[in-house]
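Severity: low
Component: inverse-folding endpoint
Summary: output formatting inconsistent between runs
Steps to reproduce: submit the following structure tokens with default settings.
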């Protein structure tokens, strides 16, 4: 019985049920007609309607497309800077003020900046790039910095060039750190993309723009907004599950390599 209760899937299920109950009682206490804080039942009913609407999948496709473009661009830039910083501690210290700035600057300020510099529909892409860049950069630089020095020195003695040591030794050994950083930033980028779409007010396609349109067209229909948010939460849960699996596999591989 104790093992059953401590099972993470059982605990996750209990936590979900508890969250739904809290949600229900809050909606019952503050808003019985669903115009401000709709109940779970009303939200899930609206979710079913949205899932039957092709426009929902169009919005989801455009949001994911812009997010992936921004994420891949940030990964490409982080790979270059992360490899340099991981191999040269002086460069890591040189880039540190930039990374602290990017981590600290308010996301809203970045959205408004890119709205001015670029078209509103492209602003979320650049926001995702700058938000994800320092996370992936730290993962790559930290992973390379944690590579066993003796392994690198042995390759150097065998005549491996600087480029070969980076490509064939340091990056593969740093891969667990890099994967965890990528998965974590990927989950964050989805949330940032939706928020940026809402703030830009771009009303073409995207989950954020769908939320913005639902809010402006019918402010009393909060069930639709909650349903769109629920779609984002479900996707985030899937990404988080993948992140958890990846982390567990990385830890397992690390423990096996340590035993060897």
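Observed output (run 2 of 3):
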């Amino acid at each position: 019985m104790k093992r059953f209760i401590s099972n993470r899937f059982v605990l996750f299920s209990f936590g979900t049920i508890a969250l739904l109950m809290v949600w229900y009682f809050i909606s019952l206490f503050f808003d019985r007609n669903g115009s401000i804080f709709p109940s779970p039942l009303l939200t899930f009913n609206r979710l079913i309607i949205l899932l039957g609407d092709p426009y929902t999948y169009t919005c989801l496709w455009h949001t994911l497309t812009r997010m992936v473009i921004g994420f891949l661009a940030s990964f490409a830039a982080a790979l270059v800077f992360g490899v340099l910083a991981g191999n040269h501690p002086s460069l890591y210290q040189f880039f540190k003020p930039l990374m602290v700035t990017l981590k600290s600057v308010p996301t809203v300020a970045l959205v408004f900046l890119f709205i001015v510099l670029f078209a509103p529909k492209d602003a979320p892409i650049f926001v995702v790039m700058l938000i994800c860049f320092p996370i992936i950069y730290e993962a790559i630089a930290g992973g390379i910095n944690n590579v066993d020095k003796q392994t690198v020195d042995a390759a150097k003695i065998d005549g491996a060039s600087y480029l070969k040591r980076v490509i064939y030794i340091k990056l593969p050994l740093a891969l667990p750190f890099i994967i965890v950083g990528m998965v974590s930033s990927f989950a964050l980028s989805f949330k940032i993309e939706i928020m940026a779409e809402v703030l830009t007010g771009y009303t073409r396609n995207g989950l954020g723009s769908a939320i913005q349109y639902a809010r402006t067209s019918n402010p009393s229909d909060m069930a639709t907004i909650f349903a769109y948010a629920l779609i984002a939460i479900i996707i985030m849960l899937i990404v988080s599950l993948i992140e958890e699996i990846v982390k567990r596999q990385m830890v397992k591989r690390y423990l096996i390599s340590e035993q060897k």
